Amino acid sequence: MNPVLRNTLAVIAGIIVGSLVNMSIITISESIIPLPEGVDNTTMEGLQNTMHLYEAKHYLFPFLAHAVGTFVGAVITALIAINHKKKLALLIGAFFLLCGIVMVCSLPSPMWFTFVDLVFAYIPTAYLALKLVCKRQSKTE
């Protein structure tokens, strides 16, 4: 397969699988840590109006969703890509970071969560995924 095509498909697969993991974690989060009484999470406007009801524990799963989704997306991309694995895995981290910035601008959250999420959930997990994939592949070669 053409390396450019395969690398492009690797990035697309990383974005899709990472997004699915992210949304799956967000979806199950309510069954593990119930939302505060009165929170309407069915619309963006409903969330914006009720975010003040969230406690620190309610931010655990969004952080995990962002970090694990980015990690899985970067792993998928690095495994599928033929070359430029490092650049492409970090591209996944940058893509999800951009999505995180858009979310922070759209949905009010405490400053501590914004900082922790944007600094630790995206680029570091993509880098960790990259290191694990490269370490694994160097052992098998």
Name the features.
141 residues
What does this structure look like?
With 141 residues, this protein is mainly alpha-helical. It has six helices and no strands. It has helices spanning 3-32, 44-50, 60-80, 85-106, 111-120, 123-140. The model has no long low-confidence stretch (mean pLDDT 92).
Write the layout of secondary structure elements.
Layout: H1 3-32, H2 44-50, H3 60-80, H4 85-106, H5 111-120, H6 123-140
Q: Total strand count, please?
A: 0
Listing every helix as H and every strand as E from the N terminus to the C terminus, the arrangement reads HHHHHH
- Low-confidence blocks of residues: none
Main β-sheet, in a few words?
none
Global outline: elongated
In short:
Helices cover 77% and strands 0% of the residues. With 141 residues, the chain is mainly α.
